[in-house]
Structures are given as structure tokens and as C-alpha cells.
Write a sequence for this structure.
């Protein structure tokens, strides 16, 4: 759907502009009058940003967005919980798409979602829409066009550069906290050419082979839990608070 969202203009040049504004506003030792003076001199983009923010953040908007985002995350993990999957997997179900927030940091859609594939070696015909690699500049680098490219045979997918997206990002963030099975689910859940079509086995090592079944186990929950009844965030919060506390520290840098 491409309906015009009121206030969808982007007055900030980038998201850091807001941080810079705040930093200046809260420089130490300022009086209340100085705050007002500072605000009055704000960049017009920043002022316009605040206008849109304050005009659009209604209760209705917040409730809708909470449903849209939190509900989606919960559907995958709740389907896993119903099936009695291990607790670490339920956590993975909940967090696996959090990296999509990268879009909010100004990354383009094509750099956040989409099937993932190895870069630096020949593309498999099993990747969706392979014809669109036609105009990828790597096409003109002969080294990247060989079967193994920049990699050693069977070097393992953990040593392969996958196309950038939300999968690799969240796996990297969770690396210190979760078992390999979980990290594989996170890192490779959009690598359909591998887990669905069996491509790229020439780069696979024994660990990848052992982990494949977990990545496959994850996939139906990712694909087919969207239609389930919307879980109620408030009722489920205590369960998830406990689940996070079991695996994750209070603060995560991401
Ligand atoms: Fe995903
Ligand atoms: Fe997903």
C-alpha cells in the first residue's frame, strides 16, 4: 500500500542531526532562558522535525504501531512456544527481525531485507531473480565470477561475506549470548538459496551441514506464523521479560 502518510516528509538530513541538537541543548550549566534561546536558533529542519513529531504522536498512532511491530515479532515466537520448542529458539523467534530497524537508521530497503547470498564469488542461479545480477558491478571483476571467488573450498558460511541485511546484523549483536544453533537461525534465515534450494554446498563445511536442520526448522515459523491471531502484548510481557533475562544482559550494544 502506498497511501500518503501525513507528516511523512523527512526534514532531518540524517538521524544524527537530532543527537547533535540535543547535545547542544544540554551543554552543561544552561539556564531555562538559554534553552529557549537555543531552541529559537535551531536549524529549520530540526524545528520542522519537532513540529511533525509533536503533531503526529497521538495515542491512536502509538497503539497502531505497537500492534504492527510488537505483534509481528510475537507471532513467530508464540507459534514456537505453542509447539514446545526450546526457550532459546523462542527468543530467536522474537528477535530475528529486530535488525529491520536498520531501515529506521536510514539504510535503504535493499540493504535491510531481501534474500541473502554470498558476495565475492559467482552468484547461484538458485538465488531469486538471478537475472538482476546483470548490472551488479562485481560482474566485471573476474575473480568474483569464479565458482569459489575469494573463498577457499568448503571454508564455511561463517567465513563468507553474505549480502548485507538484517540477518547478519542481529546475529552479530547476539553472538556473545546465544548458542550456535540460534546464531545460524539468525544469520542465515534469509539465505533461501542454501536452506531451501541446496545451492552453495561448495562453500559449506561440516558445521554448516550440522546447522542446516536448525535453519530449516526455523523457516516455517518465519514464513507461516503471520496469519495467526495477534498475541496480546500485555499478557505476554512477564513471560518475555523472564526469557530475555535468562539469556541476555540488562544492556545490549546494537
Ligand atoms: Fe527476517
Ligand atoms: Fe521474519
Amino acid at each position: 500500500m502506498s497511501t500518503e502518510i501525513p507528516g511523512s516528509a523527512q526534514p532531518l538530513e540524517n538521524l544524527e542531526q537530532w543527537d547533535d541538537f540535543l547535545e547542544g541543548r544540554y551543554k552543561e550549566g544552561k539556564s531555562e532562558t538559554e534553552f529557549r534561546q537555543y531552541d529559537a536558533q535551531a536549524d529549520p529542519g530540526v524545528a520542522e522535525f519537532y513540529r511533525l513529531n509533536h503533531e503526529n504522536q497521538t495515542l491512536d498512532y502509538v497503539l497502531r504501531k505497537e500492534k504492527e511491530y510488537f505483534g509481528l515479532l510475537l507471532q513467530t515466537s508464540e507459534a514456537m512456544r505453542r509447539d514446545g520448542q526450546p526457550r532459546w529458539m523462542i527468543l530467536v523467534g522474537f528477535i530475528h527481525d529486530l535488525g529491520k530497524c536498520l531501515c529506521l537508521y536510514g539504510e535503504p530497503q535493499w540493504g535491510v531485507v531481501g534474500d541473502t547470498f554470498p558476495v565475492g564469488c559467482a552468484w547461484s542461479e538458485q538465488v531469486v531473480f538471478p537475472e538482476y545480477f546483470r548490472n551488479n558491478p562485481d560482474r566485471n571483476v573476474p575473480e568474483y565470477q569464479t565458482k569459489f571467488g575469494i573463498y577457499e573450498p568448503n571454508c564455511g558460511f561463517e567465513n563468507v561475506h553474505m549480502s548485507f541485511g538484517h540477518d547478519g546484523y542481529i546475529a552479530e549483536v547476539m553472538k556473545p549470548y546465544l548458542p550456535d544453533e540460534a546464531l545460524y537461525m539468525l544469520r542465515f534465515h534469509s539465505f533461501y538459496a542454501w536452506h531451501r534450494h541446496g545451492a552453495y554446498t561448495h562453500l559449506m563445511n561440516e558445521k554448516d551441514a550440522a546447522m542446516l536442520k536448525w535453519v530449516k526448522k526455523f523457516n516455517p515459523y518465519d514464513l507461516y506464523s503471520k496469519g495467526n491471531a495477534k498475541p496480546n502484548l500485555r499478557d505476554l510481557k512477564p513471560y518475555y521479560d523472564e526469557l530475555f533475562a535468562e539469556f541476555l544482559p540488562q544492556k545490549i550494544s546494537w
The pocket of fe (ii) ion (ligand 1) is lined by residues 96-97, 166, 189-190 (CB under 6 Å).
